[in-house]
Amino acid sequence: MDTTISATELSKRMSDILNRVKYRGERFVIQRNGESMAVLQPADLRTGITVSELVARVGDLKVPDDGFAENLEAVPAEQGFAEITEWPD
Fold first, then answer.
1. Contact 28, 4 (CB under 8 A)
2. pLDDT given for residue 3 in this prediction
């Protein structure tokens, strides 16, 4: 659950709030004059996944049949092109 705090409270307690975000994983909604302005949350700096995570996501997917590529190429020919219409005024 998010904790809502004012921008003034954030400026007064910045160090404490940042520690709570980093070490406890808390999220804060920052408000100014009762309007939500920003969300302060832990940064996920990972840019990829590990091999173990990939294997877990892929699971037991089957290898496509030999004709799979040909089937993909045939789809546009069977469906034709989309009709181009003008946007209504």
1. yes
2. 95
Among candidates 61, 21, 58, which has minimal Cα distance to 41? 21
Residue 89: helix, strand or coil by DSSP?
A: coil
Question: How many CB atoms are closer than 10 A to CB 26?
Answer: 16
β-pair type (35-40, 3-6): unpaired
6: Cβ contacts below 8 Å, ≥ 6 apart? 30, 31, 32
pTM, rounded to two decimals:
0.50
For residue 20, give both structure tokens: 């709570």
At which residue do the structure tokens 């003008």 appear? Answer: 86
Q: What is the CATH number of domain 3-40?
A: 3.40.1620
The tokens describing 72, both together, are: 């993909």
